[in-house]
Amino acid sequence: MQKFDHLKAIAAPMKINNIDTDMIIPKQFLKTIQRSGLGKNLFDEMRYNDDGSERADFVLNKQPYRDAEILVAGDNFGCGSSREHAPWALLDFGIRCVIAESFADIFYNNCSKNGILAVPLPKAAIDYLLADAAEGLELEVDLASQTVKASNGKVFEFEIDPFRKHCLLNGLDDIGLTMQSEGSIDTFEGGQKNSQPWLYAS
């Protein structure tokens, strides 16, 4: 998993509450178990017309937001079903950080397990950052100091669980966490092979 420490990037404004996971990646794109390739279908029903052409008024179809790495949205982001394809699609598009008033719990957890920082901030802070994003200005997110900085230098602090922060800063997903104990695992398996060799018989 890619580490997240510091990001200064264009932020796309999506002043919408209750953006659910079916809006993020519609159900017809859930057949794959590959994490790559979903970015082109991110927000598919909002982003494209029925004939597949782009909707000119959708934010991610405009410059400079085609290259956005931060998304600023309203309340209850990522509600709906628990599909992990939602953070996969965001990450494949290039979104590394989502800032919103609040997040659905499962989506929030799935983000951190895929290297996306989900930042909850109060409505007043969201409104302030949405104004910056609407101007195509960069925001700066620093996980170590747990801050989001607006273009004029105004700083907003956010809370994050220390363990979640550790995992993001060090690029540790569930597999990475397990592999930190690789030495102990090898030692256990070696002992078990000696004491219970029938478990390893081919």
Task: Spell out the key features of this protein.
single chain, 202 residues, alpha/beta, 2 domains, 7-stranded mixed sheet, 8 helices
Mind explaining what this structure looks like?
By secondary structure, the chain is an alpha/beta fold. The protein folds into 2 domains: 6-171, Aconitase, domain 4; 173-202, no CATH class. It has 8 helices and 7 strands, in the order E-H-H-E-H-E-H-E-H-E-E-E-H-H-H. It has helices at 21-24, 44-47, 85-93, 105-112, 123-134, 162-170, 174-179, 182-195, and strands at 6-14, 70-73, 97-100, 117-120, 138-142, 147-149, 155-157. A 7-stranded mixed sheet has the order 4-3-2-1-5-6-7. A hairpin with a 5-residue loop joins strand 6 (147-149) and strand 7 (155-157). The protein is globular, with a radius of gyration of 20 Å. The mean pLDDT is 92.
